[in-house]
Amino acid sequence: xxxxxxxxxxxxxxAVCLVLIGSMIYSLSRGGEASYLESFFGALTTPFQKANAAxxxxxxxxxxxxxxxxxxxxxxxxxxxxxxxxxxxxxxxxMLMQENAFLKDSLGLTERLTELxxxxxxxxxxxPSGWFDxxxxxxxxxxxxxxRDPVISSGSIIGYVSEVYLxxxxxxxxxxxxxxxxxxxxxxxxxxxxxxDAKLREDGKCKMSxxxxxxxxxxxxxxVTSGLGGAFPKNIIVGTVEEVRAExxxxxxxxxxxxxxDISQLRNxxxxxxxxxxxxx
Amino acid sequence: MNSNKPKASFAKWxxxxxxxxxxxxxxxxxxxxxxYICLVLPAVVVISLNDDSDVGLVxxxxxxxxxxxxxxxxxxxxxxxxxxxxxxxxxxxxxxIRVKWLTNLVxxxxxxxxxxxxxxxxxxxxxxxxGAWYTVxxxxxxxxxxxxxxxxxxxIIFRPISRKINSPVG
Lengths: 281, 170
What we know:
The radius of gyration of chain A is 23 Å and the shape is globular. Chain A has helices at residues 2-5, 8-30, 36-67, 69-107, and strands at residues 116-126, 134-137, 150-153, 156-164, 169-173, 180-185, 191-195, 206-212, 222-225, 237-246, 252-259, 268-275. In chain A, a hairpin with a 5-residue loop joins strand 10 and strand 11 (252-259). Chain A has 281 residues and is an alpha+beta fold. Chain A has 4 helices and 12 strands; from the N terminus they run H-H-H-H-E-E-E-E-E-E-E-E-E-E-E-E. Chain A has a 6-stranded antiparallel barrel with strand order 1-2-5-4-3-12. Chain A has a 6-stranded antiparallel barrel with strand order 6-7-8-11-10-9. Chain A has 3 domains: 2-65; 68-107; 116-281, Thrombin, subunit H (Beta Barrel). Chain B has one domain. Helices cover 78% and strands 0% of the residues of chain B. Chain B has 6 helices and no strands. The chains are: A alpha+beta (281), B mainly alpha (170). The interface between A and B is large, with 50 and 54 residues.
């Protein structure tokens, strides 16, 4: 065994280890911006991952369609009915909007709508360790993506861009323990923080922390982003409350949130590259 | 002097590189649909256990870096661990065990469990996100068991390749 710890080999391994530790420290100090080494290795693997993701997605879709024909047919009928209902609502909404605009005009009010600049991205990979909820997408700095850009899918918040490389980016999802976002409960107006939780993550859920002990938030309530701090646009759906629990210390409560979008089944996402009220660095 | 040796060596590096690239791409995309599945770690450990050259060390480091591209945390973390695991696997194979399918299975599962423990320690426990012991236990169990299964499959694939390529030729 002594041969392993003497000679040139162990010195080379020690030197490589030091370089890698240096790389980790450098990576930590850059706070999500890509180093040349990371971009180089990323450029090598991204084409393979894109191709493989396309193949795996295609196969997955095929088998899902094959096995779920009856369910899909039933869902299709339900959706047709839903479309008819929404068309009726739309026409009513149109009338209300006109009435609203007329009243606002009469009162001299102006409205500033939240405008979003979106970039569509395909999900091409996921961290396989099982510890972190980080996904990779096929859009990078050349597409105008920046660190901390919010990410949505089906109109609900998915996470934020945590690292940007030339041709791809990493997204930390709302299930990851490092995720934090200001949130609002729409019925009571209570403001708190949505964050990832190591235990809830297994079931695809997250939590809304720092609620008062006697909170009025209840199961079924809708949670949206509050927009406070400027990191996320306001009024983007996060999910619904499943249940409210007391924290172990007893001083506050937290709500278990079921995200509106199933994070484990993401295929495409939208990166918000700019929005009204975005924080400026 | 055997003129086929460089050719055999080139073939070995090419075959292992291709298989590891396949595992890397598969682990990143299969994790999207099926479950979190780690394929690079078992592959690197199996190569190091069954091949006494430094191919496991070098490819472990390179594919660890490629893994870091899609992993959730610091760039270089997986490369460092793959390098150290490959080195440790070489020592284990040379001094402590005789590599057979069962010892291969146990060693790969042990390295996978150690990987999970180290990750938990460095990225959760020391940052104040400790606890949830049941979750930690499940992660280690999941990592260890899946590595045991994939490690055994790799053993069946890599062992003949290693023997074929490393056997005296000409």
